[in-house]
Automatic annotation (TrEMBL):
<comment type="function">
    <text>Converts the preformed base xanthine, a product of nucleic acid breakdown, to xanthosine 5'-monophosphate (XMP), so it can be reused for RNA or DNA synthesis.</text>
</comment>
<feature type="domain" description="Phosphoribosyltransferase">
    <location>
        <begin position="47"/>
        <end position="156"/>
    </location>
</feature>
<dbReference type="GO" id="GO:0000310">
    <property type="term" value="F:xanthine phosphoribosyltransferase activity"/>
</dbReference>
<keyword id="KW-0808">Transferase</keyword>
<dbReference type="InterPro" id="IPR000836">
    <property type="entry name" value="PRTase_dom"/>
</dbReference>
<dbReference type="GO" id="GO:0046110">
    <property type="term" value="P:xanthine metabolic process"/>
</dbReference>
<comment type="subunit">
    <text>Homodimer.</text>
</comment>
<comment type="pathway">
    <text>Purine metabolism; XMP biosynthesis via salvage pathway; XMP from xanthine: step 1/1.</text>
</comment>
<keyword id="KW-0328">Glycosyltransferase</keyword>
<keyword id="KW-1133">Transmembrane helix</keyword>
<dbReference type="GO" id="GO:0032265">
    <property type="term" value="P:XMP salvage"/>
</dbReference>
<dbReference type="Pfam" id="PF00156">
    <property type="entry name" value="Pribosyltran"/>
</dbReference>
<protein>
    <recommendedName>
        <fullName>Xanthine phosphoribosyltransferase</fullName>
        <ecNumber>2.4.2.22</ecNumber>
    </recommendedName>
</protein>
<keyword id="KW-0472">Membrane</keyword>
<dbReference type="InterPro" id="IPR029057">
    <property type="entry name" value="PRTase-like"/>
</dbReference>
<dbReference type="InterPro" id="IPR010079">
    <property type="entry name" value="Xanthine_PRibTrfase"/>
</dbReference>
<feature type="binding site">
    <location>
        <position position="156"/>
    </location>
    <ligand>
        <name>xanthine</name>
    </ligand>
</feature>
């Protein structure tokens, strides 16, 4: 998606450890118009498949999952990272190892929101090694839901998560695919011969 690639070039910052900081438009300050366009793009790709729900992980996936759900006309569910007093005890839970924080954390979702009647589109802001997607898929499987595919804003192709899920037959649709970082910036997959 050219709009997202241009924005990454303009406002993204590369940090040590192959981390791309996008806090100007996704991870802290959020650009609503960009989120609307990303939601439309995800919805266009996954439309007509009988998707009943868009599922993401709080916090950074929420803005784009919401616009995708709006475009598909279905609810959005965000999986919680911390247990809150208002969260019911009747939850599915799993564990995710955080790429950026290097810690393992619990994720939870109320059992009412993922059911065997659901066909789920999983959305996240980044795909690196695939740990977050494994955790989200695990919750969907516990709920008996079918996984329609994965919509990712920024995939760091060199970290292998996307390859693993595609080899398992999943539709992984990424709006910006980064082949590698250089000292000068980002090289997208379609720019590499
Ligand atoms: P994975 O679980 O695929 O290894 O990493 C994906 C998760 O880690 C995303 O949900 C995202 O929060 C975080 N993440 C991975 N790489 C990056 C990155 O380069 N920049 C930012 N801001 N977050 C990242």
């Amino acid at each position: 998606m050219k709009l997202l690639e241009d924005r990454i070039r303009k406002d993204g910052r590369i940090l040590p450890g192959n981390i791309l900081k996008v806090d100007q438009f996704v991870n802290h300050q959020v650009d609503p118009e960009l989120m609307i366009e990303m939601g439309k793009d995800f919805a266009e790709h996954f439309k007509g498949q009988g998707i009943t729900k868009v599922v993401t992980l709080e916090v950074s996936g929420i803005s784009m999952a919401l616009t995708t759900a709006l475009a598909l006309g279905v609810p959005m569910v965000f999986v919680k990272k911390i247990s809150s007093k208002t969260l019911s005890n009747d939850t599915y839970h799993s564990k995710v190892f955080s790429y950026t924080k290097k810690i393992e954390y619990d994720i939870r979702v109320d059992k009412r929101f993922i059911t065997p009647e659901d066909k789920v589109l999983i959305i996240d802001d980044f795909l690196a090694n695939g740990q977050a997607l494994h955790g989200l898929s695990d919750l969907c499987r516990q709920g008996g839901a079918e996984i329609a595919g994965f919509g990712i804003a920024i995939e760091k192709v060199f970290q292998g998560g996307g390859k693993e899920f595609r080899e398992q037959g999943y539709d992984v649709y990424s709006l910006a695919m980064i082949d590698h970082f250089t000292e000068d910036g980002v090289v997208f997959s379609h720019e590499v011969a």
